[in-house]
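[User] Once you have settled down, look closely at the record that follows, and write a paragraph about the fold.
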Amino acid sequence: MTETTIQHWRDTDLDDAARRFVEDGALFAGQVLTQDELVEVRHHLDRYAKYVIPRLPEEIVRKTVRIEEDGVSVRSAYFMDQIDEWFAEFGNREDFKDLLRRVTGWEPELYVVETFNKPAGVGSAASAHQDCAFLPLEPMDVVHLWIAIDDATIENGALRYWMGSHRGGLREHIPAQWGQQVGHEFVGDSGEATVMEVPAGCAAIHSGLVIHDSPPNTSSKRRLGLLCGYRGAHTRYLTENAG
């Protein structure tokens, strides 16, 4: 990752960001957390892993926590906002919602906060997928704010986006090791994907319909990311158990 001056999102061209969201479905948003806030987030993620997860009922752990193949390292934790008040408040930060309403043009409503850890050396890949495949909504107005808690680089498994793929709508998905992946109709040449390197404290924004993946982390550095997911306040769930 090259050294560049990173702008806070409020200092960026938000009209251009809104245009890129429509055209590309994903964009680099700039800085969203100060260094002090980054330290606080790391503290609460450590607290969640050490003290919250071990105290959860087994049934909840099965539904909300994934462990890497080494049997020890946490791969991901889902619905943290529904389990822990601090993460609910974090996902509902007004500055995050202000950024997203100015990029999307609609009112965002938090539906999930989750972490993707990519631990050093054992962090597994995420297959190419669309987030809307996991969320039965109408219309499919979904946006994710993916915040880098560590520097996300090519070496440690930064996200890769197939820019513009959201314009094709929701594709068929088939089972994958960690959930679902786009079906065989999608031939995902990694050479066509855009790697989104994101410095710690900064964020990427992506549509729930843009196809994206991330390679395994074979490096010696962790790649911790915290995702806040939002649906349009005007959307509705298509099944009673969703959300």
